[in-house]
């Protein structure tokens, strides 16, 4: 397969699975292995990472504009998304930032681990069961305006777990929100707002590595394809999930995780 075609497929996979709670890392580290595709390397990872960040900022631009405007101008219009959330969101990102900084190289090294595929399969199934439990026991009666420091901390710690392949950032943070009795849509909205600074920080770290290693300008076509496809697919995924979770449960995503996890376990034999 040519690299452009591969870039389109992987860009779409990155964009969709980064936000839908089925784990982008589970797909991106296992699918190339299973199909024996060439590794497009750090530059492509960086391009897709910035593509998903573009999708996040585009969809939640009004929320971030309101929060930052109220935060710096010390005003409030009484809406659920307000300037008071800026500091809690930043502090709630610290667990993921610390874990990512300390364990980033070890997590990256997992790509060459011989037991990666079956391990990701087990993680997919396990976290899927956590999502199902959260869906079943949550009272779903609280909104973002009802959140306090314990909620920010719990969801922030949950986000740090998403660094391991197969967990899913949205899956584990939405589940944490449900365990705290947040409504599904509120849990999803806060999950995505919380992920924005982390995705930005990780993108800057990866970009710094890329600049240090050097950029092959002949790869710009592949990188551009990865960025655009991941951004477009990510925007579609966020729009779909926010509308879906306003009325419906996480069950289909749990089912998908179970089947994909079983597939990976069988494929690794």
Report how far the terminal alpha carbons are from each other: 25 Å
Tally of distinct domains: 1
Order of helices and strands: HHHHHHHHHHHH
Give me the number of helical elements.
12
- Residue runs with pLDDT of under 50 for 5 or more positions: none
Helix content: over 70%
| Inertia-based shape | globular
The profile of the biggest β sheet is: none
Mean pLDDT, to the nearest integer, reads: 88
What value does the Rg take, in angstroms?
Answer: 18 Å
User: Structural class, judged by helices and strands?
Assistant: mainly alpha
Strands, count = 0
- DSSP strand content: under 5%
Characterization of this structure:
75% of the residues lie in helices and 0% in strands. The chain is mainly alpha-helical and 269 residues long. The radius of gyration is 18 Å and the shape is globular. 42% of the residues are buried. It has twelve helices and no strands. The model has no long low-confidence stretch (mean pLDDT 88). The longest helix has 30 residues, at 184-213. The chain starts with a helix and ends with a helix. The protein has one domain. Helix 8 (149-161) packs antiparallel against helix 9 (169-179).
Which features characterize this protein?
269 residues; globular; mainly alpha; 12 helices; single chain
Topology of this protein?
Elements: H1 3-19, H2 24-35, H3 41-59, H4 61-73, H5 86-92, H6 94-109, H7 116-137, H8 149-161, H9 169-179, H10 184-213, H11 220-245, H12 251-267
Give a brief rundown of this model.
With 269 residues, this protein is mainly alpha-helical. The protein has one domain.
């Amino acid at each position: 397969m040519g690299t452009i075609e591969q870039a389109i497929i992987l860009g779409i996979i990155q964009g969709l699975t980064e936000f839908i709670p089925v784990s982008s890392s589970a797909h991106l580290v296992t699918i190339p292995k299973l199909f024996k595709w060439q590794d497009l390397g750090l530059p492509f990872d960086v391009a897709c990472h910035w593509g998903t960040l573009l999708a996040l900022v585009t969809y939640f631009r009004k929320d971030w504009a309101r929060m930052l405007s109220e935060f710096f101008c010390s005003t409030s219009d009484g809406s659920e998304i307000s300037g008071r959330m800026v500091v809690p969101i930043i502090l709630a990102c610290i667990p993921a930032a610390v874990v990512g900084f300390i364990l980033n190289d070890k997590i990256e090294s997992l790509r060459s681990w011989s037991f990666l595929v079956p391990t990701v399969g087990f993680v997919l199934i396990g976290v899927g069961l956590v999502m199902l439990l959260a869906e079943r026991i949550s009272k779903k009666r609280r909104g973002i305006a009802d959140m306090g420091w314990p909620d920010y901390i719990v969801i922030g710690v949950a986000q740090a777990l998403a660094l391991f392949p197969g967990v899913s950032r949205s899956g584990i943070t939405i589940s944490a929100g449900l365990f705290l009795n947040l409504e599904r849509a509120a849990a999803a909205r806060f999950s995505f707002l919380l992920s924005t600074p982390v995705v930005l920080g990780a993108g800057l770290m990866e970009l710094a590595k890329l600049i240090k290693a050097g950029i092959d300008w002949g790869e710009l076509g592949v990188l551009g394809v990865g960025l655009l496809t991941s951004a477009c697919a990510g925007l579609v995924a966020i729009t779909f999930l926010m509308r879906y979770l306003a009325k419906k449960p996480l069950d289909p995503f749990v089912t998908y995780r179970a089947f994909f996890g079983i597939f990976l376990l069988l494929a690794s034999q």
